[in-house]
Amino acid sequence: MTANADQSISTTVGENYKLLVDVLSSTTTLTVSVGSSVGLDDVLASQNISSIDSYEFSFVATSVQSWIRFSISPDVPAY
After folding, report:
1. pTM
2. How far apart are CA 49 and CA 55, in angstroms?
3. Would you say 20 and 56 are in contact if contact means Cβ atoms under 8 Å apart?
4. What is d(CA 33, CA 14) in angstroms, rounded to the nearest whole number?
5. Helix/strand/coil for 15
6. Is 17 exposed, middle or buried (0-12, 13-18, 19+ CB in 10 A)?
7. Which among 3, 1, 53, 58 has a CA at the least distance from the CA of 34?
8. pLDDT of 19-68, one tens digit each?
9. Among residues 29, 30, 41, 31, which one has the least CA distance to residue 67?
10. Cα–Cα dist 46/19, whole Å
């Protein structure tokens, strides 16, 4: 099962933005994306993260509102 958290932010079309992500646990796989509408990843394609670290992503806004999505999926052990 995947859990999503979506957050809208006001943006200016054509402006550059940085998204900083600190991962504090590696028991799940985190996916980060940015879209012009909720659920889309047309601004920043989905980025999968599975290691504890700090990450920086850049994107250029394509609309006056951008949506950041964080998704987590528990790691399923292979049998």
Report:
1. 0.85
2. 9
3. yes
4. 18
5. coil
6. middle
7. 58
8. 999 998 777 789 999 999 999 999 999 999 989 999 999 999 999 999 99
9. 41
10. 13
